[in-house]
Structure formats: C-alpha cells, structure tokens
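Milestone M4 deliverable, item 7.
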Amino acid sequence: MRHVISVSVDNEPGVLSRVTGLFSGRGFNIESLCVAPTIDPDVSHITLVTSGNEMIIEQIIKQLRKLINVIKVVDLTPTEHVEREMALVKVKAEDRQRAEVLRIADIFRCRVVDVSPATYTLEITGTTEKLNAVLGLLKTIGIQEVVRSGSLAIQRTRKD
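Output delivered:
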C-alpha cells in the first residue's frame, strides 16, 4: 500500500543522505521525494512516498525516528491531508494541435508557461491522479518531455 510520510529534520548537510541511505540499506524504495527548508531556516521538511505493508511502514518510521537529525515523523496516509504534485510538460503543438492542447489545458486548469513555434510547455498542479489523466490525454498529441516534482503533503487542520 502507498504511504505518504512527512519528516521534519535539521537543515544540515548530509541529513538527506542519511534518510535515503536508511531506505536503500534496507531495500525499501522511495517512489517520490521532495525536500525544502521550512519557515524556520534550521529545519527542513521531507515529504516522501513509499509502498509496503503495515509492518514495513512501521519499521521505516521507527528507523527514521532513530536518526539523530530527525525531529518528527508522521505517516499522513491514515490522516486527513492535502496532497499535491506539479509537472512541467513540453508537448507538441504545431498548427493543428494547438487548439486541442489549449482545450486540455483549460479543462484541467493547467497554465501555459512557455510557447515556441512547435511546442507548448504546461504547468500542471494537482493530485497524482489528475497529473496522470492530463498526461494520458497529452500523450496522444505528442509529449516531448515531462518533469515531475513528486508529492507534497500537509496534514489538514482539525475543525473542532
């Protein structure tokens, strides 16, 4: 089963290497990884997506918590959370495809961020499912290049 894990760590050199080393050393796969500093310059936030049964995920979380520079680890999968991904897609857009590419972009609320005589570059933001749906439609037109960010996630605030 797919799990989204949120990890707060010290913003220091080598911390990301230790986190990823934990996964590779134990034969676990990271499907998606996003890292950036938080509002506190001494803390970075890692959002990672991995797969495994409950026992494997529990083991991953325990091992992450043992790392010295790890501040907090939360498995967001069983909680209410907001999850988004971004992709930049360069798609073939010659004369007869331009209108179709723009129609797809409009339907999925994509932004055109670059235009050339033969291509459009689209920015797509949303759930992984949305990105996959857009890419499926654009594939028939002719995708030239795709760059994806991986998932970012944050826990929802409780509405008590």
